[in-house]
Specification:
This protein has 343 residues and is of the alpha+beta class. The protein has helices spanning 2-17, 22-33, 38-44, 51-86, 105-119, 133-136, 184-192, 233-247, 292-297, 314-322, 335-338; strands spanning 123-124, 130-132, 163-165, 171-173, 176-178, 197-206, 218-228, 254-260, 265-274, 282-290, 306-313. It has two domains: 2-82; 105-128 and 181-341, 2-Layer Sandwich (BirA Bifunctional Protein, domain 2). It contains eleven helices and eleven strands. Bound molecules: 5'-O-[N-(L-tyrosyl)sulfamoyl]adenosine. Tetramer of two alpha and two beta subunits.
């Protein structure tokens, strides 16, 4: 019986040398490990053997079986590796396209806006999304209980975070909120810099509002601020007309400047545009000449320097430019929508 096992092993060792491809390997596997193999036959005789004989023969038969399995597996791996180069790549097959990432439409629009202002020598600065009541409202000439606060439905952060020495008055409670606009950065920037300068401030803002096709509770704005001696509304008009004509690639665009109210500007204006093919005027931004109270609060002399400021909704501009019917699509994470903006 033991001789029988040795002869199976010897004949396998000879046969395995002759295998050159996976088809032959499969034939060899069936021959030596299949149900009708000699090894299988030999194992079936086990039951006729007595105790000790059965144990010795069983042990030996298992060793042979393990040997066959290990050699067969090594042989298969070697054959496959060889095949990778020889016959497994079909170079005539069309390739599979790799999925690549791309910019979100809002990032793209923000970049387009920045490029136009950078070309007009503006600098890009950013500010915190969590703001104090002081920067978001008070320093912008919107004190507590001022009715204008209702223009910005606010997400307040619970509790008082201490006391602050107000620039505009005595020590006051320091309350935090999610900034409702990018305008607080006007104050932060003016406190630390001396005119003349011109900046834009891209950023995410938050409003405690009901959402619909044109309103989100979190959206993006682009603030602008230019301060220096003799800056006037005429400068604002030129800069903003240049910007919109470039952004919409429409040199013949029409503009309308309507009087409006924001506590931090005087006079305040709302800008409307009419593009080639538009039938209606579209409101695109709030703006104005920086209020003298705001200039004074940051330590500037309003007799020496003046400035204009503006704030526009980046989402709304993206919607106009790319004909996006619902602002919520921008935040849906729906790839069918987002992938349309692949360049
Ligand atoms: C005005 C004068 C300045 O000198 C400087 C800035 C400003 C703008 C002011 N800070 C402001 O926030 N005005 S606003 O409340 O009218 O918002 C500006 C723009 O944000 C709007 O014209 C609109 O395009 C966009 N917006 C407002 N609420 C929105 C929104 N976009 C999406 N969802 C909302 N819920």
């Amino acid at each position: 019986m033991v001789d029988k096992l040795s002869s199976i092993k010897a004949s396998f060792e000879a046969d395995v040398q002759l295998v050159t491809n996976l088809e032959q390997w499969e034939v060899l596997r069936v021959k030596y490990l299949g149900r009708k193999s000699q090894l299988s036959d030999a194992m079936s005789l086990l039951k006729d053997l007595s105790g000790d004989q059965r144990r010795d023969f069983g042990k030996h038969a298992n060793e042979v079986r393990t040997f066959l399995e290990v050699v067969l597996e090594d042989t298969r791996i070697a054959l496959e590796a060889k095949g990778t180069h020889a016959n497994r790549i079909d170079v005539t097959r069309p390739g599979t396209k790799k999925q690549t990432g791309h910019l979100h439409p809002l990032t793209r629009v923000e970049d387009e806006i920045k490029q136009i202002f950078l070309a007009m020598n503006f600098s890009v600065v950013e500010g915190p999304e969590i703001e104090t009541e002081h920067y978001n409202f008070d320093a912008l000439n919107v004190p507590a209980n001022h009715p204008a606060r209702e223009m910005w439905d606010t997400f307040w952060i619970k509790g008082e975070q201490g006391k602050q020495k107000g620039k505009t008055g005595p020590t006051e409670a320091l309350r935090y909120l999610l900034r409702t606009h990018t305008s607080p950065m006007q104050i932060r920037y003016m406190e630390k810099n001396t005119p003349p300068f011109q900046i834009i401030v891209p950023g995410r803002v938050f409003r405690y509002e009901a959402t619909d096709a044109s309103h989100e509770i979190n959206f993006y704005q682009m603030e602008g601020l230019m301060v220096g001696p003799h800056i006037s509304l005429a400068n604002f008009k030129y800069v903003i007309e240049e910007f919109f004509k470039k952004f919409f690639n429409d040199p013949a665009m029409q503009f309308r400047f309507r009087p409006s109210y924001f506590p931090f500007v005087e006079p305040g204006v709302e800008v409307d545009i009419k593009r080639k093919g538009d039938s209606k005027w579209l409101e695109v931004m709030g703006a104005g000449m920086v209020h003298r109270n705001v200039l004074k609060a940051v330590g500037y002399n309003p007799e020496e320097v003046q400035g204009f400021a503006f704030g526009m909704g980046t989402d709304r501009l993206a919607m106009l430019k790319y004909k996006i019917p619902d602002i919520r699509l921008l935040y849906s994470g729906d790839l069918r929508f987002i992938q349309q903006f692949k360049k």
